């Protein structure tokens, strides 16, 4: 069965510091992976995705993520955090052609000035 | 591009009434739309997959007679919560996948609908 784990409920970083939001996955077959961000009382905004190709994926707002097959991880990173990055981040995984995604439990990112 | 809208953004209703939520893809055609439910500070739970012109596919544990889904066109899917009860109060979010996309295409999400049943 497919699953996604985001081991941290909350990540706190100071503005200007690098940030990492962790995600590990378990799927049969080749995975495709997504990161979404959710601001309060809003839907999810797409940040980036990995399907095939380069393991380092660059996305919106300066975010990037690295696909690591051996560690089954897809951590989200940003070199320099902004206060406006504070939000709820979801990792999601899919496989096959159904289009269905399984979401992690979410990680709240708090960036302090 | 890839904008998905939902209407209404929030609704308060009395127990026993039915509520319809619309999900529209504004600048692309979507053969497949998905309906999710999200409880406070929790992840998204997939309720059903809505395919244009065919019956929706419901996830295990989701009552299809309770949550009626219609995908009448390539840009519109509706979710009707029938005979709503307070336990149906939640944040409902739809997503849409572009026409011709395979399973790996990106899902674009609507802004969500907050339902409160009194």
Please provide a brief summary of the model.
The complex is a heterodimer of chains A (113) and B (118). Chain A has strands spanning 3-5, 10-14, 19-21, 24-26, 32-38, 44-50, 56-58, 64-68, 73-78, 87-94, 102-103, 107-112. Chain A has 113 residues and is an all-beta fold.
Describe, in plain words, how this protein is organized in 3D.
- The complex is a heterodimer of chains A (113) and B (118).
- In chain A, the strands form three sheets. In chain A, strands 2, 5, 6, 10, 11 and 12 form a six-stranded mixed sheet that branches. In chain A, strands 3-9-8-7 form a four-stranded antiparallel sheet, with no helix packed on it.
- The termini of chain A are far apart.
- Chain A is globular, with a radius of gyration of 13 Å.
- Helix content of chain A is 0%, strand content 51%.
- Chain A has strands at residues 3-5, 10-14, 19-21, 24-26, 32-38, 44-50, 56-58, 64-68, 73-78, 87-94, 102-103, 107-112.
- Chain A contains no helices and twelve strands.
- Chain A has 113 residues and is mainly beta.
- Chain B has no helices and eleven strands.
- In chain B, strands 2, 4, 5, 6, 9, 10 and 11 form a seven-stranded mixed sheet that branches. A four-stranded antiparallel sheet of chain B has the order 1-3-8-7, with no helix packed on it.
- Chain B starts with a strand and ends with a strand.
- The mean pLDDT of chain B is 90.
- The A-B interface holds A 32, 34, 36, 41-46, 49, 51, 90, 94-101, 103-106 and B 2, 4, 6, 32, 34, 41-44, 46, 49, 91, 93, 95, 97, 101-112, 114.
